[in-house]
Amino acid sequence: MFVCPHCQSENPLQNRFCQQCGKALRELQAIVMPIAPPRETAPSEAVSTHSKTAVSPSATAVATVATLFTPQNRLKDQERYQLRQPTDADKPLNADVTILSILDCEPAADSPLVEFLENAPDDLDQAAIDELIPPLAFPYWELQESLYPVVPELQAAWQIENYAITVIEDRTSWRTLTDLASAGVVEPLELVHWLYEIIALWMTLSPFAAETSVLAPDNLRVDDDQVVCLQRLIFNPDETPPSLETLGQLWQTWLTQSSLPQLEPLEDLVTDLVAGLLDDPTTVQTRLIEIADRLSEPTSAAEPAVETAPSTTTTLPLAATDTPGETVAALSIEEIAAEAKASAADSPLLLVEDLLLGAELDDAANSSPEAESASEEGGLGDLPTMALPMKLHRLDDAGRTHVGRQRAHNEDSFFAHTQVQRLNSPAGAQVTARGLYILCDGMGGHSGGEVASQLAVDSLKEYFAEHWQADLPDEEVIRTGILNANQAIFDQNESEERAGNARMGTTLVMVLVNDHQVAVAHVGDSRLYGLTRQELTQITVDHEVGQREINRGVEPAIAYARPDAYQLTQALGPRSNQEIAPTITYLTISQDTLFVLCSDGLSDNELLENHVESHLKPLMRTKVDLDDGVADLIDLANEHNGHDNITAIVVRLKLRPNLNAIADSE
């Protein structure tokens, strides 16, 4: 039995949720490794200032589990972590690695690492990081930004006597790639895709002496989005790199165990690997690309049957400029690739190394001698690419509004609606979805603000129910809908003879999603943010005096020194249609993305920018409940802002490789 950190009730060891309060029990793993004594390192061996070498069995006296834990079964120096399963205190720690199942007793709090980073000064130097993160945990730190979820997120790391403790999420319940291959549920192109991911991982982990991570069958797991992930990093024994023959032997086992039809080119590739005929990972990648191209040759498909399905989703590169009154078409990396390839598929294309590696590795990894050498020799900096067609996988949303801590009434209004269909055919399942998301922040005396914001929401909702039938509406259709909303509020101002500050109005930020295409429209200072694995981007630009002056070439410090810097230059309702110029932007989605629509009660004081790690990045994960996430954002805004109404809509889009897509021949 172990104690739930939420309600202190005892639970059986196998429980993933507390049987008393029902809350999730945050399961983690503590990776315990002995620390090697310092040794001289040749310049060409250094990846960073950290040495990762674990000590040999004879290099230190044998310690026991009691070395690490308090009498209450809490880890020393980080007592928020509790031993999940009873363990003999006299059990010796393994000479190479000991893995312990632990529970986070403060699951609602930020991890120690996130807490440190949020409170760290802007000029945080390497010495401070070195002091915080032991060398054996440092590769997780360097890789997590570019490789999560492939590499587990580092929760905490510290040293106890001669042992390094690394705390990561527990992935033992995830499906192994071996199990999926044995179960016969893997399609040929899907297996080729996974092998490509693995060889790309091999190359990425090489500078960290961790290629062994992809050689342990139990260490290769598949998440809910069908991405091959690691349970943990496994460092090469004595930092000796393994051979590609060993990798070929693992692949040969999968081919033998799977019930796939005979794939002669893939079998030939694996045979060559096992025979030691291939010693360059890029050659393996090139041959996998050729195999994927052959498997993607056109085939006929029957007409799909249609059935409704629960809300699901997709991804995007945020590369668009925002100019008031203009429409901007954003080119994604997939569209650039499509122009370069005559046989590009109709759907967006995701490059496999983008799926795995993000834009690039951390500067620290890229600046290492091994990374530079790999780039010069056609390694990390010049990887061959396998262009896989992508399909919509999930589209989820959640929204909430709150009056705040100082206002007497709430002048914000919002609307969020998602429609999803699943098309089933012999070629496989395909998800199509559309969503309409509207957020308005009202203003005006005598309860005018809530009237204006609700008028705008109702007008736009009714308008698009009639004028959005198939593909995304074009610029003129969207602009007309916004002007109709403006006219409705303007007419009410006129009929009630409102003047000056009593004239009611509202801001607007609106997102329309149609599969992997997105239209964004806004008026005023309500914002849209987009979060990808790489970064948080503010997509909209506020319509206010300070920003107008910056657009005219005035220095930001001078522009926002004006007393009227935050006065709106655009709003719906106070003025006629001739004076309204909404900004309309089109985006193409090409990677998992989180959209956040928000009023200034949430965006003020750079609140979102300062809490990306703690409050936004977790929402990218499929298993995280968006309703709870939005509630946390509201609480955060009340804690740090609270001076205004607070409204947020969060939209999560997920993509998956479309392994049944038919590429255009020419």
TrEMBL record:
Compositionally biased residues, Low complexity: 297-315
**Could you tell me which Gene3D superfamilies the record lists for this protein?**
PPM-type phosphatase domain
Task: Specify the protein name.
Answer: Serine/threonine phosphatase
InterPro entries recorded? PP2C, PPM-type-like_dom_sf, PPM-type_phosphatase-like_dom
Q: Supply the Pfam families for this chain.
A: PP2C_2
Q: Where is this region: Disordered?
A: 295-315, 364-383
Source organism (scientific name): Leptolyngbya iicbica LK
Q: Which molecular function terms from Gene Ontology are attached?
A: protein serine/threonine phosphatase activity
Q: Which PROSITE patterns match?
A: PPM_2
Q: Give all residue intervals belonging to the PPM-type phosphatase domain.
A: 397-653
